[in-house]
Amino acid sequence: MGWWDRFGLRRARRGGKSRFDRPAENSDITSLIEFAKSRVGVEFYVEPETFATNTTAVAVATDGEWIRRRVGSPNVIRKVARDLALPAYDVQIVGYPRRMREWTARNKRGLSLED
């Protein structure tokens, strides 16, 4: 069974209001899964669909490192999170974690974790 069927991406691609973004692909979901399996304490934050982008998810590790990928539908990332036994939060309700902003600020300045 492919990712499209397993995580419901085929159903998630129907309709929607985004106009400029490309649809979610297998590689997007695979990237989130690989990130989650290779880091400690990963949490998913689901971002809503907008006029310009489809639904996305941000995976944030304990140290604040993060990636954002298209997921097609909130149900897709919730299923991935459930399969990996990781939490998935609605970013409109809980917001982004502070460690994510701190990690981004450190990397913009070119500082390492030890600095």
Give a quick summary of the entry.
The chain is of the alpha+beta class and 115 residues long. The chain has helices spanning 3-6, 9-12, 26-38, 74-84, 91-94, 98-109, and strands spanning 43-47, 56-60, 66-70, 88-90.
Question: In words, what does this structure look like?
Answer:
With 115 residues, this protein is an alpha+beta fold. The protein has one domain (26-109). The protein is 42% helix and 16% strand. The protein contains six helices and four strands; from the N terminus they run H-H-H-E-E-E-H-E-H-H. The chain has helices at 3-6, 9-12, 26-38, 74-84, 91-94, 98-109; strands spanning 43-47, 56-60, 66-70, 88-90. Strands 3-2-1-4 form a four-stranded mixed β-sheet. A hairpin with a 5-residue loop joins strand 2 (56-60) and strand 3. The radius of gyration is 14 Å and the shape is globular.
